[in-house]
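Same chain as my last thread, 302 residues:
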Amino acid sequence: MIVRPRPHWLKLLFVRRGSILGRILPQLLFTTLLSATVVLAHGQLFHWKVTLTSAPFSLMGVALAIFLGFRNSASYDRYWEARKLWGRLLVEARTVTRQALTMTRRRTDARPFVLGVIAFTFALRNQLRGLPAVKGLDGLLPTSLLVRLETVRFPCALILLWLAEWLRERREAGELDPVLVQRIDVHVSGLSEVLGGCERIASTPLPFTYSVILHRTVYLYCMMLPFGLVDAIGMMTPVVVAFVSYTFFALEALSDEIEEPFGLAPNDLALDAMAAGIEASLREMLGEKAQPAPTPQDYILT
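reply #2:
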């Protein structure tokens, strides 16, 4: 996730770090050089004059802009839903921690349960990013459970099962009333709903044909555009084509990035920072000192 103060409007025109320019620069240079070549050749292709005007590109441009807008809206919906799920994760984690600390008997040590909730948060981060299941879980769960997590396909579900078993053990030991167990389990189930929502987003991308159609259309449009402009604006053709290509290429690249919100691209969600924030909040509820908040590296927060 890009985290930086909004610069002055003039500096914003030339910002490179934290923008999408680095990803689309090769395509942008290619279309600009192609436009310059078309101008030098006076719109001819192998001694054949390409007779195009700006009229068809106006119609195609409107349709392409609408299609790009739909693709970006669909991608942003996935991004925003993922962010809401992690916001709910924070709320559910705080709530279930507060209940575990206040609804059990005074002699009950609820710290293992709270550490289990922290472990669930990091395990969810690991699962969504394809990292080893036990990364960052040292000291949060029993050793026997950590060994099991290394061999299972859905480690987060196993941690939720362990949390439910902890509640059952407290109920059987008389340290937690059955009615209160049900109230706490409601929020453990909330963690399960967050897990299911994140898995749905991660395992169900937008239909591939959308990307194929949009990618082909954008490139064909930008490569044919110089032939439609050269007779009308002459030497200004590369400038106009570069501007139009930048807009279309950037929108396509941005929608591709945020379509998968759990990755490590600059515009993806900062799962590391959010998981660390949840851990800090729960440790403070335990009366422990929290680690300092993560700081962005080159304006990027992972």
